[in-house]
Amino acid sequence: MKLGIVGSGQIVHDFLSASDQMQDVELVAISTLARSKSVAKELAEKYQINKVYTDNEAMFADNDIDTVYIGVPNSLHFPIARQALTADKNVICEKPLVETSEQVRELKKTADKHHVLLFEAMTVLYLENYFHLKEDLKKIGKVHVVALNLTQISSHYAEFLAGVHIPKFDRKMGGGALMDMNIYNINFCVSLFGQPKQISYLPTIQRDTDTSGILNLTYDDKQASLIAAKDAAGPTRSYIEGEKGLIYFDGPLNVLPDYYIQIEKEEPKHYNFNKYGHRMISEFNYFAKKIKEHDQQAADEAYEHSLNAISVLEKAQEFLPHD
């Protein structure tokens, strides 16, 4: 795919650092705000990107580009994705895709109208370890307890406490622990166990932002506790507990570097099937293949999952303080 990139922040830097290891990904252009043009130029020079734009609409009109990757603050995902889809570009948008289920439906409607594909960049769902873990669930019997914990103190936490404006801590920009981090736990849990019957969210609020929180999902036969924190030290351990044994893993869920299976009183067995050192390579290899094939079924399945996950996210947001 011939890629145009929107944004020049941390996630774009991270993506570009691994882009040379991705299959069938050609970096054509990058678009950023005028005030960030110098950063975009530096990235373009470092990663051999031929074109730099300070206007998204101009980049979306570029016929050399067939796909747009969006890596900007969460609150901007919906308008930029809709604009790109309307310009007949395939779209890969960073997590969370959008903030509401209605916005998900609107983007899908736009994508279908313009005969292009839409994917949400959700690393964990494309890692090899995820697919193997999903298959290994049958080994531990019926699952009744799920405890997922994505905790890591933010590198910007001290600045946030000092009063500096940090987009990832600004709820109006789609920041906070729920939107920025617990979305990984939500996607993982919903992909494995489906939609919960009940949802409740218990946030820790600092300066009007949920800097951490516990999201409780109730199913007919299990309880899931999804913890995410930007204000506490990590990493921590996550568990999936069944009647015959358990699966557990350490570290951030978005990386899922390995996992363990313990059946009853047997010694735990360690597994790692991931092919690449960087978490974003597997997902972009998948996106490039599906876009090249114009695989509508793959896009439809991705849409259904994103809709289910965003529906949970949307209900959880109701527990946050409102103006």
Automatic annotation (TrEMBL):
Organism: Lactobacillus helveticus CIRM-BIA 953
Annotated GFO/IDH/MocA-like oxidoreductase domain residues: 149-247
Listed PANTHER family: PTHR43054, SCYLLO-INOSITOL 2-DEHYDROGENASE (NADP(+)) IOLU (PTHR43054:SF1)
UniProt domain Gfo/Idh/MocA-like oxidoreductase N-terminal: residue ranges: 2-119
Any one GO MF annotation of this record: nucleotide binding
Protein name: Gfo/Idh/MocA family oxidoreductase
Highest taxon in the source lineage: Bacteria
